[in-house]
What we know:
40% of the residues lie in helices and 16% in strands. By secondary structure, the protein is an alpha/beta fold. It is globular.
Amino acid sequence: MKYLVTGAAGFIGAATCQKLLAAGHVVVGIDNLNDYYDVNLKLARLAQFESHEAFTFIKLDISERPAMSELFKTQQFDKVIHLAAQAGVRYSIENPDAYADSNLVGHLNILEGCRQTKVKHLIYASSSSVYGLNTKVPFETSDSVDHPVSLYAATKKANELMSHSYSHLYDIPTTGLRFFTVYGSWGRPDMAPFIFTKKILDGDTIDINNNGDMWRDFTHVVDIVEGVVRIADVVPRRNDQWTVEQGTPASSSAPYAVYNIGHGSPISLMDFVKAIEDELRIEAKKEFREMQPGDVYQTYADTQDLFAATGYKPQVCIKEGVTEFITWYKGFYNK
């Protein structure tokens, strides 16, 4: 099977490429290698597998319409795993244009490429942030997601809507995955596990939002990638019996599906910090502060639909996951 993986130098993208290559697939990875965070980290991720005979890397921005069109025409992919996006909730407040270019225009270019070349299945990254102001937990894909609290979340909801329209109009099977707080080795420097670990080791103070009263459904990247690869083989089909009135928003009469992908057991922010402190054997200096713009109090995934579709449940507990991440961090940064 020939896959396109967008965001191949990214945290989840690089791990997905490795998983697909290990399974014997042919993979073309694209990434624009932007400087939102350290490009050297992105290049180091790619270095793990870029010499694999079944892998091809192309530096490309998904917002570049002619280049994306040419890519799809020349490569003729069987399936697409679309993970490239401008990430970060807070950065969307500072630089909204980057989100329009990458997350909206870029997603449209992916959809068009799939339409023009009749791709068998498009799997794309949505986000738990689409749940926005929802307070009922666990978050279910049958819940309303009409009240996002950041532009980033709004673009991810837009991706789901755009995908549905293409599934309906052009019979393109699409599956959206709402990721819940992914962490692990090779993680992103702008995310809490990375920030906390770096600051604790450097002797700096860590900021604790909402005075520590926050919960996150931390999910290790190994579990995330296992779910991504498994769901790639579960191709949505048309269902003429489905109706808006009686069906769930996560499915459709079109070949369309949306799933939560998370651990399904939220952890207190303070417990997560404690796990890092215990592993480092250093007590963090802490600055407690109010909730920050665009942030949410709790994330908690109901993953029963994903389990039913793939038979897979996350396996990595917090202690094991934090140990794995910190072992990698110390090795990579010679700490």
